Amino acid sequence: MLRRTILFMTCLAAFAAAAPQAPDARDAMRLGRTQDDALYSAFSKGYQLSPTPPVANAEIITEFRRAVLIVREHAQRGEMGFTDHELDNEMKPHRGLVTFIVEVNLHPLNTYQRMPFYEMYVSPGSGVPPVAAPAIKRDPIYALGGPGASLLGVRLEATFPHDKIAAGPASELIVTNETADVLWRARIDLSRYR
C-alpha cells in the first residue's frame, strides 16, 4: 500500500510539474499546424524587431516560437501524428535560449571579395558586461545567381541565454561591422514575447 501511495504521489508531482507547459504545447501545436496563412503570418510578424538601414530584417525566436516552428516543419512534411511529447524532446536543446536573426544590407557599391566579419551581441544595460553568443552563424546574401554574383548582405544568427537578457535593465541587441562600428541596435523586452 505504501508503494502505491508513493508511486501515486510521484506521478501526481510529475503531472503538476508538467501541467503549466501543457497550454503552451497545445498552442504551439495549434499554431504550427494551422492552415490559416493570415493567422500564422500575424503570429510571425509579432516576432519582428524594428529594422532600420542597413538592417533589412530582424527577428526573435523565443522558446514558444521555436516550438511553433518545429511543429510547422513537421506539419509541412505531412507528419500530422507529431505529438507534444515528441515536441518536448525536440525542444530540450533550446530550453532557456533566445535566438536572433538579422539580415544586414551591404552598400550597393561594396567591393568585398569575402563576406565581412560582422558581430552581434546583447548589451544588458549600463554597468553590465555585454553578453556574447557562443557562436554566430554568418551566411552571405548574394544577388541572383548565388556564389560568384554580387554580395548584397550578411545574415547573422546567434543564440543567447534568456536569463541574461531578461536580467538586464535595458537590454539591446547590437550589430557591429568588422571595425566594431555599431551599425544597428534594438531594444529587447522579452516580456513582450511568448
How would you describe this protein?
- This protein starts with a helix and ends in a 7-residue tail after the last strand.
- It has six helices and eight strands; from the N terminus they run H-H-H-E-H-H-E-E-E-E-E-H-E-E.
- The chain is α+β, with helices and mostly antiparallel strands.
- It has one domain.
- The radius of gyration is 21 Å and the shape is globular.
- It has helices at 2-18, 21-33, 37-45, 63-76, 84-91, 162-166, and strands at residues 55-61, 97-105, 119-123, 131-132, 136-142, 151-161, 172-176, 182-187.
- Residues 4-21 have low confidence and may be disordered.
- A hairpin with an 8-residue loop joins strand 5 and strand 6 (151-161).
- The longest helix has 17 residues, at 2-18.
- It has a four-stranded antiparallel beta sheet. Strands 4-3-7-8 form a four-stranded antiparallel beta sheet, with no helix packed on it.
Strand content: 25-35%
Return the domain count.
1
Q: Write down the overall mean pLDDT.
A: 87
Number of strand elements: 8
| Cα radius of gyration in angstroms | 21 Å
Task: Please identify the structural class as seen in this structure.
Answer: alpha+beta
Any low-confidence stretches, pLDDT <50, length ≥5?
A: 4-21
